[in-house]
Design goal:
Shape: elongated
Distance between the termini: 24 Å
Structural class: alpha/beta
Oligomer: single chain
Radius of gyration: 22 Å
């Protein structure tokens, strides 16, 4: 229904009613990758990391309602061309007229009727694809170089979204982990720049590369059996050895890509993050037992983000901890598991980490 063997299209479903979110996701999840979002404010936060192919937007929401949200979307050069379908329990023509005047492409009434909802999304995505194609023809050759760069960036993002989606599909209890860890990294790096921590190294980074590469930190989990990944109890020593091998499997995957692409700054960041985020400051980590600043800075940062999110997340073998409990464990790990300078940075932004958790638990 979504067209071909390509990666599934992304639908962002925005509604303050949890039942509507659950029903809508259940209707769409076999065809599309669905992000259920409980408010307009959280939608804009999520849009910084995920670009949907279409947005289904409820009109009547507390705080930012659907009308205000679509006005903001259409004023943004970054998001103005994303198709928006308004969701409403209203049936009067004046409400539809207002929404369409603001730039909505269609209306869908609640409660949802699955075949109609799927068909409308399919038709709108097809129309948007044709519109994009015509726009490309109209721009002509003078804009081709810019279009090629945009296409390369879009391809990179599509590959990242697809691979990270496969990783999260393998780990269905950690939905949202990849988005959250990327947000944690940005929070940490922003504070490091303010404080001058490792400023020479961080200042030389292309932050788009670093943040995007973090999405692949656990790519090696694709090679690990679900029996081990989703085991409800503690792993045996033999199973833990297999689990640790996800790092080496991830490095192998990255190296195969590098063999085809050559030396590339983005892939260097990926390799360093994949290969070192399970190393520990005291040398007790894996796979190489690196110690202190022998561990690449990307890996030391990823270790804090990854462990924090594992602690606050529900996993097959444990219940989630509170943000306060997770923060305490990160601080206790200073100079043992984690770089003490980075733990000091974390201590200044732990409230921002907690806000990320609070705002993403519905995603």
């Amino acid at each position: 229904m979504n067209g071909s063997g390509n990666a599934r299209k992304i639908v962002m479903l925005v509604d303050d009613n949890e039942a509507n979110l659950a029903i809508g996701k259940d209707m769409l999840k076999d065809v599309y990758k669905v992000y259920p979002v409980p408010s307009g404010e959280i939608m804009f936060d999520l849009l910084e990391d995920v670009r949907p192919d279409i947005i289904l937007l409820d009109i009547l929401m507390p705080g930012m309602d659907g009308y205000e949200a679509i006005k903001r979307l259409k004023k943004s050069r970054q998001w103005a061309d994303i198709p928006v379908v308004l969701l409403t329990a209203k049936s009067d023509e004046s409400s539809e007229y207002v929404g369409l005047s603001l730039g909505a492409m269609d209306y869908v009434s609640k409660p949802f009727y699955a075949p109609l909802l799927l068909k409308r999304i399919e038709n709108l995505l097809m129309a948007q694809a044709q519109k994009n194609q015509l726009r490309g023809y109209g721009e002509g050759l003078p804009g081709q170089a810019e279009a090629n760069i945009s296409q390369i960036n879009s391809l990179q993002n599509a590959v990242l979204n697809t691979i990270s989606g496969l990783v999260e599909f393998k780990e269905d209890e950690t939905d949202g982990h990849i988005i959250r860890t990327r947000k944690y990294l940005k929070i940490l790096v922003d504070q490091m720049l303010l404080d001058g921590v490792y400023i020479d190294e961080v200042g030389a980074w292309d932050m788009n590369f670093v943040l995007s590469s973090s999405q692949l930190h656990d790519v090696g989990n694709i090679a690990i059996s679900d029996v081990i990944l989703k085991k409800p109890g503690a792993l045996t020593p033999e199973e833990f050895v297999v689990m640790m091998s996800h790092v080496e499997e991830g490095i192998k995957a990255v190296q195969k890509i590098e063999e085809s692409t050559g030396d590339d700054a983005f892939m260097r960041h990926v390799r360093l993050i994949v290969g070192s985020h399970h190393e520990k400051w005291d040398g007790s980590g894996y796979p190489n037992g690196l110690r202190g600043t022998e561990i690449p800075l990307e890996g030391r940062l990823m270790a804090i983000a990854d462990v924090y999110d594992a602690l606050i997340s529900k996993r097959p073998y444990k219940k989630p901890l509170t943000a306060e409990e997770a923060s305490a464990i990160i601080k206790e790990g200073s100079a043992k598991h984690f770089d003490p300078a980075l733990v000091d940075v974390f201590s200044k932004v732990e409230d921002k980490f907690a806000d990320v958790v609070k705002n993403s638990m519905h995603i």
